[in-house]
């Protein structure tokens, strides 16, 4: 049994049947109450009429499959037996089986008879997914979710982006993914969205799920645009979930989240490593991460958001974290990039020229690993200190160390996991990225206009420091690296050992949003 969307959270249920490659389903309509029997042996339906309908559906499926079907609960999911006891992950296209019987509460599905023993279904409903933006991630998600059977729309409100995207994919017959996640078995496929518009009213109202895979500076504008059009029960996923987006969500959609109209979840890591090859036509997919952590606003919605995201991402595991501060302190780019950059440019002074621009990950060395590990240790210490000071915030092990994190999200793509250096320099998901440098004279210098500096420092690294100040945790390595690069960037984030410089207003730290205590920071 699969509850389309969020398992036991009141979304319309479907009965799945078939094998792992060709799952099908029969809509049960919307009964007033559905719950498991106390012994997990089956379902209790709200009314006598609904119970009869449920029993008739199961009998019909048993006859068709020539197998006895029962239900049981495991891992937060309802599943069926009568075949291998395994979840139907990665449901591609929910189908409603047509039959002479119909649900008393559902108008979906044809009422015509079909010959027995013949598979009888018609496609009547696909969950709606709306992708916001037209960047690298959107180029992957549009054909990816379409390929899984979702009804995909696009909202791209920036200038003429929607019109350019639509013209390009229509001319090309869709956006093509060159999927190189498995170098030994590359594949390509191509799809188009059903709607592509610069008007949120065209693409948001039918969205069960809204994907915002954009830089954090763009999130507020998108939330303001989509706010009037959000569907009751919609889930908004922000990828990645760092960069202070939780503060922005509470500012723009606070009432909608508190009332239960919508849920918003921040995701770590960003699911994809990808690059547009030709706008609106082709995208190169280098890596699709293997597992994810998630925090939600409100926090109570994290389990249902995690369950739904796992289904969206073809069964990949998604782990809910306690308070959203756990996402802000997570092991992602703000841990990776500043440490690696200090390993590369810790000796840089204006006027120094480097002879070449090295590959950022393939040349990763132990010096860079040492700095990244020190950042990781300080970051994890901040989280553990908060968990100790404020019980109920989360579990100390929910924020992972850097090596553990990289191994988990790139499972199967790392050739040597013996050290922190090798999980980067032997990682297929990290191949081909040069360092953030620019040509100068006969050599190269750091490019301080690169997003490695303009985003990762003010939006992520300063977040670590700001939370540390509120938790009363010393961070000598973060201070050292942030001070070195802020001087080269012409910024002042740290002053007298605290995140109190003149440019704090440009960061996404708690202090930027007027939060000056742990109590304020942890408020849901």
TL;DR?
The chain is of the alpha/beta class and 524 residues long. The chain has helices at residues 48-65, 136-147, 161-172, 200-203, 219-226, 245-259, 302-312, 325-328, 333-345, 366-389, 402-409, 420-425, 451-454, 456-471, 476-489, 518-522; strands spanning 2-3, 13-17, 24-27, 34-36, 43-45, 70-74, 77-81, 128-132, 151-155, 175-179, 187-191, 195-197, 209-212, 234-238, 262-268, 272-278, 282-288, 292-297, 318-320, 437-440, 443-446, 494-495, 498-499.
Please mark out the parts with pLDDT under 50 across 5 or more consecutive residues, or reply none: 1-46, 68-125
Mean pLDDT: 82
Overall geometric form: globular
> Distance N terminus to C terminus?
33 Å
What percent strand? 15-25%
Separate helix tally: 16
What descriptors fit this protein?
alpha/beta, disordered N terminus, 524 residues, 19% strand, globular, 8-stranded mixed sheet
Structure characterization notes:
By secondary structure, the protein is an alpha/beta fold. The protein contains 16 helices and 23 strands. Strand 14, helix 6 and strand 15 form a beta-alpha-beta unit. It starts with a strand and ends with a helix. The N terminus is likely disordered.
């Amino acid at each position: 049994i699969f509850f389309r969307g969020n398992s036991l959270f009141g979304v319309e249920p479907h009965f799945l049947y078939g094998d792992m490659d060709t799952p099908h389903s029969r809509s049960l309509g919307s009964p007033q109450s559905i719950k498991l029997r106390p012994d997990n042996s089956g379902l209790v339906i709200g009314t006598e009429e609904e119970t009869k309908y449920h029993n008739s559906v199961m009998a019909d499926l048993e006859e068709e499959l020539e197998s006895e079907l029962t239900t049981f609960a495991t891992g937060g999911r309802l599943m069926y037996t009568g075949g291998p006891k395994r979840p139907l992950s990665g449901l591609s296209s929910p189908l409603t089986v047509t039959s002479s019987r119909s649900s008393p509460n559902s108008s979906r599905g044809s009422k015509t008879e079909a010959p027995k023993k013949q598979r009888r279904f018609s496609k009547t409903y696909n969950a709606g997914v709306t992708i916001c933006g037209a960047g690298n991630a959107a180029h992957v998600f549009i054909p990816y979710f379409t390929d899984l059977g979702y009804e995909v729309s696009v909202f791209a409100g920036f200038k003429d982006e929607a019109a350019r995207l639509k013209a390009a994919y229509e001319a090309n017959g869709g956006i093509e993914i060159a999927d190189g996640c498995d170098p030994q078995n590359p594949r390509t496929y191509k799809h188009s969205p059903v709607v592509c518009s610069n008007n949120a009213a065209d693409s948001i109202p039918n969205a069960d799920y809204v994907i915002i895979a954009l830089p954090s500076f763009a999130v507020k504008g998108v939330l303001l645009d989509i706010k009037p059009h959000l569907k009751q029960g919609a889930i908004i996923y922000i990828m990645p979930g760092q960069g202070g987006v939780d503060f922005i969500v509470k500012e723009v959609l606070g009432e909608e989240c508190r009332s239960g109209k919508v849920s918003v979840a921040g995701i770590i890591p960003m699911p994809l490593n990808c690059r547009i090859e030709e706008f609106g036509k082709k995208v190169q997919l280098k890596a699709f991460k293997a597992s994810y952590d998630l925090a939600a606003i409100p926090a109570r919605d994290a389990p249902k958001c995690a369950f739904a995201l796992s289904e969206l991402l073809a069964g990949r595991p998604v782990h809910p974290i306690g308070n959203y501060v756990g996402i802000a302190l997570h092991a992602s780019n703000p841990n990776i990039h500043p440490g690696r950059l200090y390993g590369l440019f810790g000796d840089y002074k204006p006027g120094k020229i480097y002879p070449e621009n090295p590959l950022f990950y393939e040349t990763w060395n132990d010096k860079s690993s040492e700095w990244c590990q020190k950042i990781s240790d300080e970051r994890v210490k901040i989280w553990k200190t908060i968990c100790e000071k404020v019980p109920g915030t989360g579990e100390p092990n929910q924020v992972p160390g850097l090596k553990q994190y990289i191994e988990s999200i790139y499972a199967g793509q790392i050739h040597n996991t013996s050290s922190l250096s090798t999980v980067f320099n032997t990682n297929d998901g990290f191949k081909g990225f040069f360092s953030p440098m620019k040509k100068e004279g006969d050599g190269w210098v750091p490019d301080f206009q690169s997003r490695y500096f303009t985003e990762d420092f003010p939006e992520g690294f300063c977040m670590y420091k700001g939370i540390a100040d509120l938790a009363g945790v010393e961070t000598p390595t973060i201070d050292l690296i942030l001070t070195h690069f802020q001087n080269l960037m012409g910024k002042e984030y740290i002053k007298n050992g605290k995140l109190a410089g003149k440019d704090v207003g440009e960061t996404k730290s708690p202090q930027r949003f007027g939060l000056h205590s742990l109590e304020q920071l942890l408020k849901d």
